[in-house]
Structures are given as C-alpha cells and as structure tokens.
Design a protein that fits this description.
With 89 residues, the protein is mainly α. The chain has a domain at 41-77. Helices cover 49% and strands 0% of the residues. It is built from 5 helices and no strands.
Length: 89
C-alpha cells in the first residue's frame, strides 16, 4: 500500500504546472537542425546567405542564428518586447 501511495503522490507532482524556462540556445539550435531536414534543396541556400552575413552576434550557421533574437535582445534591451507575443488564453 505505501508504494501505491508514493506512486500516486509522484504522479500528482508531475501534474502540477510549473513555469517554463523557455528554449534557450540549445533548444533553438535543435529546432533549427530539425527544420533544416525539411528544407527543399532550393531553400537550403539559406546556409550560403548566412555564411555571407558578418553579424557578430552569432556564428554564420542556421543552428546558431536560431537564437539570434536572444543575442540581439541581450545587446538592445529596448527590443525585448519584439521577441515574443503573449496571447491571453
């Protein structure tokens, strides 16, 4: 019986809502790498475009550029509200 109570308590803790810590650089990069697999050959030219851009905030690849807005927001605090939209549920 104690094991069953422990399991029920553990499951109930998993159901408690917690705050999201967002994606971070790694999460953005993972999504960009997954998205790259869905690009058509013509759209894959994005790598060449990024390679020609000398923006110093991130390296010139799709995975790094996926978090460019975070890097820009860190440099320019006045643009923080441009990064996301909070829609009421």
């Amino acid at each position: 019986m104690p094991a069953r109570a422990f399991a029920a308590g553990f499951v109930s803790l998993l159901l408690v809502p917690t705050s999201a810590l967002a994606w971070g650089r790694t999460g953005h990069a993972v999504v960009a790498d997954i998205a790259r697999g869905y690009l058509t050959p013509k759209a894959a030219a994005v790598d060449a475009i990024l390679a020609s851009d000398a923006d110093p905030l991130t390296t010139q690849d799709l995975a790094a550029r996926a978090s460019w807005a975070d890097a820009w927001r860190a440099q320019r605090k006045d643009t923080a509200s441009w990064h996301f939209v909070n829609n009421p549920i």
